[in-house]
Amino acid sequence: MRKEVILGYARLMRPANLPTAAADILAGAAIAGLIPGEQDLYSDTILLVLASVSLYAGGVVLNDVFDLRVDREERPERPIPSGLIPQSSAVLFGIILLATGNFLAFLANPTAGLISLALAVCIVLYDGYAKRHVFFGPLTMGTCRGLNLLLGMAVAGMVFQTTWYYALIPVVYIFAITLISRGEVHGDNKKHLLFSMLLYALVISAITLLLPDHQNNLLVVIAFLAAFGYMIYRPLIAAYADNSPANIKKAVISGVLGLVLMDGAMAAGHSPWWYAVIIILLLPVSMALSKIFAVT
Q1: Which residue of 37, 47, 75, 211 sits 20 to 30 Å from the alpha carbon of 9, by its own alpha carbon?
Q2: Model's pTM, two decimal places?
Q3: Rounded CA separation 69/75 (Å)
Q4: What is the SS3 assignment for 177?
Q5: What CATH class is the domain 3-290?
Q6: CA distance 78 to 114
Q7: Per-domain residue ranges of the chain
């Protein structure tokens, strides 16, 4: 296989985004109170990290498959519309990635497997239909992220009965990012940006209010939330001031990569500070990859 083709398949998977999927799993495991205390669950956590990455990669591959007609006009340089990767090959690649993610999740435990199946259904639903709907699209995409966090919380099976509501936080957050992205090609989406600012504030407030009563890492959580707020609000305000596609794209990219900081902040409230730092270290990985591969 030619080097350009291999690179084309890599571009389809959006490598810069994949560490954010891993961060969801690590945060979910911490929220469930299982990591790093239960060493016998480390292997299952790794399985779920790999499952999540595979599911995310499969989702973005199929997204490009469904977007082929639009991309021929708006993004002809992408691997499928450019002819580098045949559409049929991309379909097979996406299906294999989703199936691999489901298989790895079931290896961890049946509960995680069932959540991964629900996640795969939501992914295909978003790619094939929901994203064209102004409300249902952002909601479905957000649900995918919520299920991904829940997947991490299910590392030991059904142990998330008292913490499941944390999964609503990424639903709201991704809803906001998806709204912002609707102006990425043509601009002119100031109303969406204003609403997203409010949703971002809701997310930060929710993380703060849901901190456990006996909080030993309060300063760490505050530091992560401050960095998170700076990362997502600065480009968003700039995009509102100059509502151009280029600025909107920067706001979307910062929002996607900011997921790592959000996950780190949530994990810091339920785990030792160093575990949250491990999650945060995924951010420079994403940022480095974003200089090579497209995020959106």
Answers
A1: 47
A2: 0.93
A3: 10
A4: helix
A5: mainly alpha
A6: 33
A7: 3-290
